[in-house]
Every structure is written in C-alpha cells, then in structure tokens.
Design goal:
The chain is of the alpha/beta class and 240 residues long. It has one domain: Spore Coat Polysaccharide Biosynthesis Protein SpsA, Chain A. The protein contains 7 helices and 11 strands. The protein has helices spanning 32-41, 57-66, 83-93, 112-125, 167-186, 194-202, 221-238, and strands at residues 3-9, 26-27, 30-31, 47-52, 73-78, 99-104, 127-133, 140-141, 147-149, 157-166, 207-210. The chain has a 7-stranded mixed sheet, sandwiched between helices. Helix 3 runs antiparallel to helix 5 (167-186). The radius of gyration is 18 Å and the shape is globular.
C-alpha cells in the first residue's frame, strides 16, 4: 500500500498583516511550514508533494526541504489561482498511490494520532476528514447581518485537515471539477474544501474523524502565539 500527502503552502496570509507569507514566518525558530512537513516526514506516509507559489519554489527547496532534511518531499509544484487548482496540480503531479492526504501547511500541530486515525477510517469508507464538534452555538445569517436560523449544534462539525481519500476517487473528482469550473463560477458556487469536491462530483460522503488534539490553522497573529505555546507544551511532555 502506498500513501502520499499533498501539503498546500501557496497562500499569502493577508490576515496576518505581514509582508512575509505566513507559511514562512518563524515559529520557535523554524518556518511555520516546517512543522506540518516534519509531521509527515515522521509518519507512515511515503511521499509528500509540496505546493507553493511559483516564485517560492526554489526557496522551499533550499531553505526548507534541503535545510531540514525533509527527504519525503519528492516534488514541489506551483499552486494555482484557487485552492482547488493547487490540489489538482499536485494530484496530476503525483506518481499515483492508494491513498492521498491533503493538508494545509498552515496547520503546524497535526499529530501522528490524527494521521493514524484518518488512515484507519479512509480504508473503511474511502474518504475521511479530521474535524471537531462545534463547541459554540452556530447562527446562519440572512445576508444582511441578521440571524436567519440556528442549526442543531450537536450536528455541526468544524472541518480541519488532513482530508484523506482514495487516490483514484480524488483524481476523478478533481478532473470533473476542473471540467466544470466555468459553469460553477457562473453559478457562484464556492469550493471551500476537498470533501465538498468528493461529494459533489463522486457522491461519496466523508467520515468525520474526531480530533481531540489542537490542530489550529494559523490565520491571524494571535494564532501564532497559540501555536507557539502548544508546540512548547508538546515538546515538554514528549521529553518527560
């Protein structure tokens, strides 16, 4: 069995308010992106395809992959206009595998536990996603900042990554997406994650793998502080 991972690092992170893309900002002395790549390096995953902005390909290769000895990163490909373009570029660059992990490079706290759990469930259900139940009451608004409805909180989950699929399933779904992208754009359909693509084009539901560990996505400056504390705590407990 062959398992590969796609790590997406093509964003600019405008909400961070920094001239440096957030994936390259230092977190405890290393680039933020390093931590998610390191997690896959230490896992059962065979190969990693890193996706970055076209102008950053050489930087990623020299200053992250080579510098930190990330030997499982066997390809670095350029991202696209949208997130789904970047995923598609990586899927077609793949040499093929049985299962493919898709992960945001801005989630540095991904654990071996959740990688293992996702693998267990993707082998059973073909599609699995790390997620956690919503802790707060969720409101839907009417488009004018007024509350329209309140969904049942017990049925609301917040999506994370990795999102994991049979490779053939993901490849087929994304090829259909790319063939339909103009039609979807005209209909104002916003593709926000990979489970949406798999459901829309292959009618396969993804199993929700509850993640009890912190798996924060670094989006704002305060998220870097949270990630710093969590990383230090993880290092402290692992050395005890």
């Amino acid at each position: 069995m062959k398992v590969d991972a796609i790590v997406l690092a093509g964003g600019r992170g405008k909400r961070m308010g920094s001239r440096i893309p957030k994936q390259y900002m230092e977190l405890n002395g290393k680039p933020l992106l390093y931590y998610s790549l390191k997690a896959f390096e230490e896992s059962f995953v065979d190969n990693v395809i890193l996706v970055s902005n076209e102008g950053d390909l050489d930087y990623c290769r020299k200053e992250i992959v080579i510098k930190y000895g990330l030997n499982k990163v066997n390809k670095i490909v350029k991202g696209g206009e949208e997130r789904f373009d970047s995923v598609y570029n990586a899927l077609i660059a793949s040499d093929g595998c049985d299962y493919i992990y898709i992960h945001d490079g801005a989630r540095p706290l991904v654990s071996q536990y959740i990688l293992d759990r996702c693998q267990h469930y993707v082998e059973k259900y073909r599609a699995a996603v790390a997620a956690h139940p919503a802790g707060d009451t969720i409101k839907l608004e009417d488009g004018n900042h007024f509350i329209e409805s309140t969904p049942d909180r017990n049925k609301v989950w917040l999506m994370e990554t990795p999102q994991v699929f049979e490779y053939g399933l993901a490849r087929s779904a994304y090829e259909k997406l790319m063939a339909s992208r103009d039609r979807l754009k005209e209909a104002n359909v916003n593709i926000t994650d990979d489970t949406m693509v798999i459901k829309m084009f292959e009618n396969v539901d993804s199993y929700l793998v509850e993640n009890t560990n912190c798996n924060i996505k670094v989006t704002r400056p305060e998220d870097m502080l949270i990630a710093k504390v969590m990383l230090e705590e993880r290092e402290r407990t692992s050395s005890c």
